[in-house]
Amino acid sequence: MARVFVYGTLKKGQPNYKHMINTAKGLAKFQGRGRTVEKYPLVIAGKYNIPYMLNIPGTGHHIAGEIYSVDEQMLQFLDEFEGCPDMYQRTLMRIQVVEWEGKGGAGEARAAADGVLECFVYSTATYPPEWVGLPYHDSYDSSGKHGLAYVLRESR
After folding, report:
1. Tens of pLDDT along 87-141?
2. Is 82 an annotated catalytic residue?
3. Does 98 map to a domain?
4. Residue 101: what pLDDT?
5. Residue 153 lies inside a defined structural domain of this protein
6. Which domain holds residue 26?
7. Does residue 107 form part of some domain?
C-alpha cells in the first residue's frame, strides 16, 4: 500500500471523490487529514477550473487535504486520472498529520517524527508561467467562495 495526499476534487464531498470509493479502480482507505509541511501555491486554473498545486516549495500556503492508503491498482488509476507525468507529477512530500483515523489510531502517525508522514502528492511543475500570478488557496472546495466551479470531465 502507498500513501497518497489529495487536496482537490478527489477529497470527500468533492466532484471526483466517487473514484476514491470505486473498488473497481482499486482500494483507497481514508486515513486522516493533513497539510503540507512546506508552503505551496494552490491555484484554480484553466477553462475547467481545475485545482493545481504548483511545485514551488516555500511559496503560498500549507495546503490542507486528506491522506489515503491505496493499493497498486488505485495508484495506477490515479496516475492515469491525473495525467501523470504530463499534467501532474507524482512526488513524495512531507505531510503534517492533523487528524488520524487510520489503522493503529494515532500511534502510527505519532511514530513518524512529529506526526509527519511522506505521501505521494500530484503537483505540477509543468504549468503556464501566468498561473503563478493567480490567487493562492490553502484549501480547495469546488463550490467555494472563489466562484470557480469545477467542470466534470463528462461535461467537457
Report:
1. 999 999 999 999 988 765 545 545 454 789 999 999 999 999 999 999 999 999 9
2. yes
3. yes
4. 84
5. no
6. 1-127
7. yes
